[in-house]
Amino acid sequence: MGDPASAEAALKESLVLSPDRLEAMINLGKLYLETGRLADARSVLARAVNRNRRSTLAIHSLGMVAYRSGDYETAEGLFRRAQELDPANVT
Predict the structure, then answer these.
(1) Contacts of 10 (CB under 8 A, 6+ apart)
(2) What is the distance between the alpha carbons of residues 62 and 41, in angstroms, rounded to a whole number?
């Protein structure tokens, strides 16, 4: 991974300029997930899912946060929801 701090700063700046930008929310959430900041990941990815309830990428990413947090029941529900929305394209 490159420089997580620089990536975080760029993604946060993107969200300052466009607060509802789904791609930036998902990428920031995934960055937090990969750097072990699960509470931050959950917060930003929940916001992404609320922004677009049909985004399989946002839903699946939030499921990964639940899974890594040990909340397997929530993770299973989120993974199932993503699969139901788009059975051919679950990340």
Answers:
(1) none
(2) 8
Average pLDDT of the chain to the nearest whole number: 94
Count of beta carbons in the 10 Å neighbourhood of residue 69: 15
Q: Tokens for 85, please give them.
A: 């929305």
Kindly list the distances between the CA atom of residue 26 and the CA atoms of 2, 4, 42, 43, 65, in Å, as whole numbers in the listed order.
18, 15, 10, 11, 12
DSSP 3-state helix, strand, coil percentages of the chain (rounded to 5)?
A: 75, 0, 25
Is the pLDDT confidence value at 73 over 80? yes
Which helix (DSSP H) or strand (DSSP E) does residue 20 occupy?
none
